[in-house]
Design a protein that fits this description.
mainly beta; ten-stranded parallel sheet; 10 strands; 2% helix; elongated
Length: 191
């Protein structure tokens, strides 16, 4: 049985799909090899928490608080971050599967994505100033009217970003990534 307030706890191999989590609070907790598949995280707050090797398939979100939360090797396919509370929203991702995730209109300044699969994600109108996409796969992801000032895409692959539709001032790209900025012009870039 999970308490309403949980502080500085370690949860290992817990199947949270069988727990009532809506409205719970977790502060400085660590979740290792846990399943949140089909869990209801409505009004649940996570503050200074880390998730390692966790599964969030079909999780239910509504006003879920993710405040300084780190995800490592987690499966977050189709995760709808737009339903999470904007108050103190801050996340970090390391070797995560985030395919089909929605980040529309989220303020994610200085967010780090490290070795993540971000296939078909929606970053429309997302604020990603100074964010880093380190060794990430961004195939089919949408960037439209996104704030990408000083964002780092030097080691990212598969992205297509229209410079006319996004704020890219001082964003960083490698030479190999220039094709992703010129895609709309249907140019043939040869080495």
């Amino acid at each position: 049985m999970i308490e309403q307030e949980n502080d500085n706890e370690i949860f290992q191999q817990v199947d949270f799909s069988k727990e009532q989590l809506a409205g719970c609070e977790f502060i400085e907790c660590r979740f290792v090899n846990c399943s949140f598949s089909a869990s209801d995280l409505t009004d649940t707050d996570f503050l200074d928490c880390s998730f390692e090797d966790c599964d969030f398939t079909l999780v239910k979100l509504n006003a879920t608080g993710l405040k300084d939360v780190c995800f490592k090797r987690c499966k977050l396919m189709g995760f709808d971050f737009t339903l999470c509370s904007d108050f103190l929203f801050q996340v970090e991702f390391d070797v995560c599967q985030l395919d089909y995730a929605l980040f529309t209109k989220k303020k994610m300044k200085k967010t780090t994505f490290r070795q993540c699969s971000l296939v078909e994600c929606d970053f429309t109108e997302c604020q990603l100033t100074e964010s880093v996409f380190d060794d990430c796969i961004l195939t089919g992801s949408t960037f439209y009217r996104s704030g990408l000032t000083k964002a780092d895409f030097r080691t990212a692959i598969g992205f297509s970003i229209d410079p006319d539709q996004n704020h890219l001032k001082k964003a960083r790209f490698s030479q190999a990534g220039l094709a992703g900025l010129l895609e709309k012009y249907d140019l043939r870039i040869e080495a």
